[in-house]
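Hello Y.,

Per our agreement to keep a running log of every chain we model this quarter, I'm adding this entry. I've kept the format consistent with earlier entries: sequence first, then predicted structure.
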Amino acid sequence: MYAHEIDYQIFGEEMQYVEIELDPQEVVVAEAGSFMMMDNGIKMETIFGDGSAQQQSGIFGKLLSAGKRVLTGESLFMTAYTNQNNRKSKISFASPYPGKIVAIDLTKYQGKFICQKDSFLCAAKGVSIGIEFSRKLGTGLFGGEGFIMQKIEGDGMAFVHSGGTLARRELQAGEVLKVDTGCIVGFTKDIDYDIEFIGGIKNSIFGGEGLFFATLRGPGVVYVQSLPFSRLADRIIASAPRAGGKSREEGSLLGGLGNLLDGDNRF
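Predicted structure for the entry above:
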């Protein structure tokens, strides 16, 4: 094993957090802002990139590792947490919004897992977090995630976050699953990822589901989320107060009455 072997437990339902148990001198790396709590004696250190083997290959390796993260929209830096106690200690990382945390054992997925940008939460030290370029023009332009997705490589544990409820599908060879482009959390290395035009003028213009499906062809495992953060953000923005301090519903004749009935008694 090149990556550190870590034990973990996931708590919660809608707003989950993962508690990781570190042996002495074991290290876990995480995205900035995901830290929740930790035992005394765990040292926090900001590092370039992901802390994998490439991290030790000199300044060029460090810059390359950090540069890959910038392309996926992440920060140049990650945070490494080292257990400096002579006993086991625990540290916890929390979800950024309602959803599920997925534990990915890379040894079960041939050492590689591809996921959407911003979904990575934390991983054992030694796991590499890089970029995966889409080789198909249509997928890059219309696939929802662009030309670049994240890839997690190694032989340790990694944790990614999904929105809403999580569905896991294991596809057989040649089996195809059609998914909304924003609902993909991630998939294994052998999955063939492409996009497909919905078809039909009415479907395209009035269907409200966009112009394309994502098509995922097996064999392999696919994780799908019920509530992409972009969809949640769109609903929040649509319901936010407009200029003048009124929300979208307050412009109707029953807007004021509706606010009284539903408990919104702002003046």
